[in-house]
């Protein structure tokens, strides 16, 4: 066995009493130290070779492991005598000296620890754990960076690819706030192994402290991808680093110019202005109202102030516009139409869950609202999940400066999605079938988030084997389209996934051009819908066979009764609007409408406004409907005094609404 020294500061630290310029003195000193073991010493220039004639004994006995285990349990005073006995029996084992030194260091006896580390290094100058411990002692307890560097540099010299050792040294300097030295060692560790999560985290933290937030963010993302233990400190620290780096960049307005340019691009693509406004009443983080569907000459993007990452939400909704317009130009755009007529059937399918709510004393009005929200919530997932995958891909690949706000926003949305299907209270009360389908959509979204940013959200889900099988199938199909999607192909995924989950009975997809040419109510704004019903209440255009049959029965039941269908339909909406409102509040609205109507209400006019029903524009017929219903609820005893000829319409509205 041969060990090697260089005539350097490191050698002088181990043998300070030797004149390193005198070869004979060096040989004599080394022979004295290694005595009684026979050694042959050769000095060639500044290199010293020490050749042992016999192999050194290994002292890894049961006593060694027992003492080491005591150290793990922090029982250092019990371990020290065992190590000392082992050294007395065999002083040649470097690791025994190193473990003994660590026991003294943990006990606060740093001088004795240094002495035993010197012995450890004399027997094995490449013992990198002894080198690191020696450096740590000098830098932490004596604030002696120069001496510490003597030992740390020796690690780089003797084992330049030992990324674990280099990372530990870099981490020590990072904890002490010595960023230059930390980066020096971490960079070498990164070069040796760029996929070691501890190293990428360290590099990210160094860059964050330097104010290099983009680089810090990138290293945090690398850490997610390299680290499998999502509950471990490395992963969690990287998540915190990514969020803080991204927030710092968003605070610096990174991505703002990109968003402004994107708005202009969408305006040019669609030929219409894009307007942005906050709306706390919307049920989602954001929504886009297409100009074509609302009879406007501008598109409107609404954002919910509950979600602060507005730039991403706006960009997301703009991409909805982009995909729809590109599909429209190819004649491939589709309209997603939820079948509200299927709501009652949906409620029957979840009767078990609704019965639980009834037994808990939940009011029927609340249960009805819950059913309605659940129905439209799962419809929203059917429509949005496949399209959102393509949208987030597009934003990630085309707008690097928006990635930071995109990351924060998607993380928040995924956390909420996880809670929605994993919260024990929600699980207890939710219909199992709908919960399963919602979970499948959410896990697909989580997997996509991981594919972009490395955050392993899917691992946080408790998912059943059959659910995972469906997730895998959806993910495989998405990836078949992912890199070369043609305009409108996203609708194929909506249809396929709806069919696979047996949800397709609740919606239909129809070609936009042919659907609108039939003047279908679902393709128009709400006011246009009711105006159409009034003008032509018996049309069948745009309905599937089942819906047409239902409409036919309805028409047969109410034909010949001299009804104003527009007013009746508006009354249905009014009854729904007032259903959870106190009579006093309804009375206030009734009086406001009465004041507005002192000069007359023109049924053909549009644009009426009420202070007590903000953000709503009323046509004349709609206002008359609300006028009648508000008085019928709040002051039925004087309703006849209004002399409004809508008694039949009101009775029909009550039948339809069930109120």
Automatic annotation (TrEMBL):
Gene3D superfamilies the record matches: Tetratricopeptide repeat domain
Tell me yes or no: is Repeat among this UniProt entry's keywords: yes
Q: PANTHER family given for it?
A: CELLULOSE SYNTHASE OPERON PROTEIN C (PTHR44943), TPR REPEAT-CONTAINING PROTEIN MJ0263 (PTHR44943:SF8)
**Which residue ranges contain the repeat TPR?**
94-127
From the UniProt record, list the coiled-coil ranges: none
- What does the UniProt keyword field contain? Repeat, TPR repeat
**What is the species listed in this Swiss-Prot or TrEMBL entry?**
Fontibacter flavus
Q: Which InterPro entries does the entry mention?
A: TPR-like_helical_dom_sf, TPR_rpt, Ycf3/AcsC/BcsC/TPR_MFPF
Name under which the protein is recorded = Tetratricopeptide repeat protein
């Amino acid at each position: 066995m041969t060990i090697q020294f260089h005539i350097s500061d490191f050698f002088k630290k181990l043998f300070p009493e030797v004149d390193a310029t005198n070869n004979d003195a060096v040989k004599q000193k080394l022979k004295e130290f290694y005595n009684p073991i026979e050694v042959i010493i050769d000095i060639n220039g500044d290199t010293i070779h020490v050749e042992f004639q016999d192999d050194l004994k290994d002292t890894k006995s049961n006593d060694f492991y027992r003492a080491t285990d005591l150290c793990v349990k922090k029982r250092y005073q019990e371990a020290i005598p065992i190590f000392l006995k082992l050294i007395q029996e065999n002083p040649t084992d470097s690791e025994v000296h190193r473990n003994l030194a660590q026991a003294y260091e943990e006990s606060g006896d740093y001088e004795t620890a240094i002495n035993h580390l010197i012995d450890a290094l004399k027997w094995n100058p490449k013992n990198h754990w002894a080198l690191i411990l020696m450096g740590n002692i000098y830098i932490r307890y004596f604030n002696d960076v120069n001496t510490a560097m003597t030992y740390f540099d020796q690690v780089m010299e003797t084992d330049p690819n030992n990324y674990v050792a280099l990372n530990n040294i870099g981490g020590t300097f990072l904890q002490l706030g010595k960023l230059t030295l930390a980066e020096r060692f971490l960079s070498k560790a990164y070069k040796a192994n760029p996929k070691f999560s501890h190293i990428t985290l360290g590099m990210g933290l160094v860059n964050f402290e330097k104010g290099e937030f983009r680089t810090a963010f990138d290293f945090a993302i690398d850490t997610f991808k390299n680290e499998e233990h999502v509950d471990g400190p490395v992963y969690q620290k990287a998540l915190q680093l990514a969020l803080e780096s991204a927030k710092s960049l968003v605070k610096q307005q990174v991505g703002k110019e990109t968003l402004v340019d994107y708005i202009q691009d969408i305006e040019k693509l669609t030929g219409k202005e894009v307007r942005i406004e906050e709306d706390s009443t919307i049920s989602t983080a954001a929504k886009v109202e297409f100009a074509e569907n609302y009879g406007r000459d501008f598109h409107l993007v609404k954002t919910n102030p509950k979600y602060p990452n507005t730039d991403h939400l706006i960009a997301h909704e703009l991409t909805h516009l982009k995909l729809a317009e590109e599909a429209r130009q190819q004649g491939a755009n589709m309209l997603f139409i939820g079948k509200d007529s299927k709501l009652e059937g949906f409620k029957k399918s979840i009767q078990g869950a609704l019965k639980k709510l009834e037994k808990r004393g939940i009011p029927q009005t609340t249960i009805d609202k819950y059913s309605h929200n659940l129905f439209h919530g799962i419809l929203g997932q059917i429509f949005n999940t496949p399209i959102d995958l393509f949208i987030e891909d597009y934003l990630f690949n085309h707008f690097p400066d928006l990635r930071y706000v995109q990351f924060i926003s998607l993380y928040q949305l995924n956390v909420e999605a996880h809670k929605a299907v994993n919260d024990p209270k929600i699980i207890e009360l939710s219909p199992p079938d709908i919960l399963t389908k919602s979970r499948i959509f959410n896990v697909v979204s989580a997997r996509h988030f991981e594919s972009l940013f490395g955050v392993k959200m899917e691992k946080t889900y408790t998912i059943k084997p059959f659910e995972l099988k469906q997730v895998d199938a959806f993910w495989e199909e998405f990836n078949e389209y992912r890199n070369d999607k043609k305009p409108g192909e996203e609708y194929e995924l909506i249809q396929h996934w709806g069919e696979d989950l047996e949800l397709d009975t609740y919606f239909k997809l129809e070609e936009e051009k042919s659907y609108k040419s039939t003047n279908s109510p679902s393709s128009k704004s709400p006011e246009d819908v009711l105006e159409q019903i009034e003008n032509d209440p018996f049309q069948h255009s745009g309905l599937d066979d089942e819906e047409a049959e239902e409409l036919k029965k309805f028409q047969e039941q109410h034909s010949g009764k001299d009804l104003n269908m527009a007013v009746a339909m508006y009354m249905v909406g009014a009854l729904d609007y007032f259903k959870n409102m106190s009579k006093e509040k309804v009375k206030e609205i009734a009086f406001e409408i009465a004041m507005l109507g002192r000069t007359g209400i023109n049924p053909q006019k549009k644009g009426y406004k009420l202070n007590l029903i903000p953000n709503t524009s009323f046509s004349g017929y709609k206002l008359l409907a609300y006028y009648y219903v508000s008085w019928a609820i709040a002051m039925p005893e004087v309703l006849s005094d209004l002399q409004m000829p809508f008694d039949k319409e009101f009775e029909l509205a009550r039948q339809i609404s069930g109120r």
